[in-house]
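I am still getting used to backbone structure tokens and would like to learn alongside you. Please make up or recall a protein chain and show it to me in full. Would you write everything just below, so we can both look at the same thing?
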Amino acid sequence: MSKISKFFKGGGSAASKGRGGPSPQEALARLRETEEMLSKKQEYLETRIERELAVARQHGTKNKRAALQALKRKKRYEKQLSQIDGTLSTIEFQREALENSHTNTEVLKNMGYAAQAMKKVHENMDLNKIDDLMQDITEQQDVAQEISDAISNRATFGDEFDEDELMAELEELEQEELNKGMRDVRLPSVPSTSLPSRPGKLPACHFTFLMIKPCTSTRRRAEDEDEMKKLAAWAS
């Protein structure tokens, strides 16, 4: 059996042995103590390596034997330092695993407490009563929605009328306004003199209501006839 196995097997306290093994807290405390001890050993070895290296530089070629001895010691210290690095890595891994295990144990324990509490809370609950309660809540929500809809609808208070009757009344009013406008139109008076027998001899500006063209058109036609007579006389 290795020394490390003997250390972990026989290094526990009497109380731990009586309980059948150390608690996670005790094991974590031991691992941290070991890490601290190995860290101090690392610092010591690093100091010795620097010292032996300085001795080897000091002797150099003047005293080769002393320089070589110093380098040999430095190599041994470096080997021990490398072993301690590996040991620290193993202990760190073990400590993290133990911490995680302890955390998981506490989590499971607390989850068990919570499950027991939930079970105790649900002991006095009846699923049938819960269904009835939820049905009552749904019905009351429907009633509340109906009330809200009724309140939000526009109140008519007798304002509903037949649109056809309203349109017929509107058309009657429009017809009355049209008839009134026709009565207000003033027609020109009928002339008292008799009309001439020939339309060509009709006075140009006395009976404006019988004219198709204005008086200016009649004068222009007369001027054109005069011009045509002058041209005919000149051509003959």
